[in-house]
Amino acid sequence: FAEPVLAGRRVLLTAGPTREPLDPVRYITNRSSGKMGFALAAVAAAAGAEVTLVAGPCALPTPAGVHRIDVETAEQMYAEVQRHVAGQDVFIGCAAVADYRPAEAVAGKIKRSGADLKLHLVPNPDILAAVAARAEDRPFTVGFAAETDRVLEHASDKRRRKGLDLIAANRVGPGLGFDTDDNQLELIWDGGHRQLGPGPKSALAAELITQIAQCLQDDKPE
Ligand code: C5P
């Protein structure tokens, strides 16, 4: 990154999927690879920020200079974000957090029987909305929205509903978004909106970090 646009700033991110255990050997998860969040963490560190990355299970190397905290479940991710959020300048919720978890993780392996099996799922905490709702010491809060249709409209609704400063929306579908190297993002913030890509996630990450740095500067001129 050519310019230290985040020098002296602290950035906290979530990335990757979460894993919600059903029993000791099975879990519910999703197709998130963590690539976008890890690319953002790498770029933020290269731009001079002190970066903390709370990562769900993903097979990616830790970017240079990034403090990585590994978690499995949404509840663990929520707890780590709560533990580290004070004093951060920017929070980027990039993780594909499981919306639901099994009401109880069974202690022994669930046995096969001929009968139907019903799963009782309960909602997970919304990590991003909790950060955005902080009354004090609230970082500039950035979320992602994976949408299949009417991307701009759904994403700006989500930005308002969750109280975000900026939302990065992407269209998901066959060959797009999840577990791919390329992506296309629609950024929406208070001051406007802008399309990034299509292009490699690393290039989009650099542009998104530049936009966040710009918003910070507009927000709180030093
Ligand atoms: O509402 P939806 O899940 O589409 O919102 C996506 C955004 O919210 C992402 O930025 C994701 O990281 C964040 N999120 C979260 N905690 C949840 C669900 C979503 O932080 N439980």
UniProtKB/TrEMBL annotation:
<comment type="function">
    <text>Catalyzes two sequential steps in the biosynthesis of coenzyme A. In the first step cysteine is conjugated to 4'-phosphopantothenate to form 4-phosphopantothenoylcysteine. In the second step the latter compound is decarboxylated to form 4'-phosphopantotheine.</text>
</comment>
<dbReference type="GO" id="GO:0010181">
    <property type="term" value="F:FMN binding"/>
</dbReference>
<feature type="region of interest" description="Phosphopantothenate--cysteine ligase">
    <location>
        <begin position="11"/>
        <end position="222"/>
    </location>
</feature>
<feature type="binding site">
    <location>
        <position position="158"/>
    </location>
    <ligand>
        <name>CTP</name>
    </ligand>
</feature>
<dbReference type="GO" id="GO:0015941">
    <property type="term" value="P:pantothenate catabolic process"/>
</dbReference>
<dbReference type="GO" id="GO:0004632">
    <property type="term" value="F:phosphopantothenate--cysteine ligase activity"/>
</dbReference>
<feature type="binding site">
    <location>
        <begin position="93"/>
        <end position="95"/>
    </location>
    <ligand>
        <name>CTP</name>
    </ligand>
</feature>
<keyword id="KW-0479">Metal-binding</keyword>
<keyword id="KW-0288">FMN</keyword>
<comment type="pathway">
    <text>Cofactor biosynthesis; coenzyme A biosynthesis; CoA from (R)-pantothenate: step 2/5.</text>
</comment>
<dbReference type="GO" id="GO:0046872">
    <property type="term" value="F:metal ion binding"/>
</dbReference>
<protein>
    <recommendedName>
        <fullName>Coenzyme A biosynthesis bifunctional protein CoaBC</fullName>
        <ecNumber>4.1.1.36</ecNumber>
        <ecNumber>6.3.2.5</ecNumber>
    </recommendedName>
</protein>
<feature type="binding site">
    <location>
        <position position="162"/>
    </location>
    <ligand>
        <name>CTP</name>
    </ligand>
</feature>
<keyword id="KW-0511">Multifunctional enzyme</keyword>
<comment type="similarity">
    <text>In the C-terminal section; belongs to the PPC synthetase family.</text>
</comment>
<feature type="domain" description="DNA/pantothenate metabolism flavoprotein C-terminal">
    <location>
        <begin position="6"/>
        <end position="214"/>
    </location>
</feature>
<dbReference type="GO" id="GO:0071513">
    <property type="term" value="C:phosphopantothenoylcysteine decarboxylase complex"/>
</dbReference>
<feature type="binding site">
    <location>
        <position position="109"/>
    </location>
    <ligand>
        <name>CTP</name>
    </ligand>
</feature>
<keyword id="KW-0436">Ligase</keyword>
<feature type="binding site">
    <location>
        <position position="144"/>
    </location>
    <ligand>
        <name>CTP</name>
    </ligand>
</feature>
<comment type="pathway">
    <text>Cofactor biosynthesis; coenzyme A biosynthesis; CoA from (R)-pantothenate: step 3/5.</text>
</comment>
<keyword id="KW-0456">Lyase</keyword>
<feature type="binding site">
    <location>
        <begin position="125"/>
        <end position="128"/>
    </location>
    <ligand>
        <name>CTP</name>
    </ligand>
</feature>
<dbReference type="GO" id="GO:0015937">
    <property type="term" value="P:coenzyme A biosynthetic process"/>
</dbReference>
<keyword id="KW-0210">Decarboxylase</keyword>
<comment type="function">
    <text>Catalyzes two steps in the biosynthesis of coenzyme A. In the first step cysteine is conjugated to 4'-phosphopantothenate to form 4-phosphopantothenoylcysteine, in the latter compound is decarboxylated to form 4'-phosphopantotheine.</text>
</comment>
<keyword id="KW-0460">Magnesium</keyword>
<dbReference type="GO" id="GO:0004633">
    <property type="term" value="F:phosphopantothenoylcysteine decarboxylase activity"/>
</dbReference>
<feature type="binding site">
    <location>
        <position position="99"/>
    </location>
    <ligand>
        <name>CTP</name>
    </ligand>
</feature>
<comment type="similarity">
    <text>In the N-terminal section; belongs to the HFCD (homo-oligomeric flavin containing Cys decarboxylase) superfamily.</text>
</comment>
<keyword id="KW-0285">Flavoprotein</keyword>
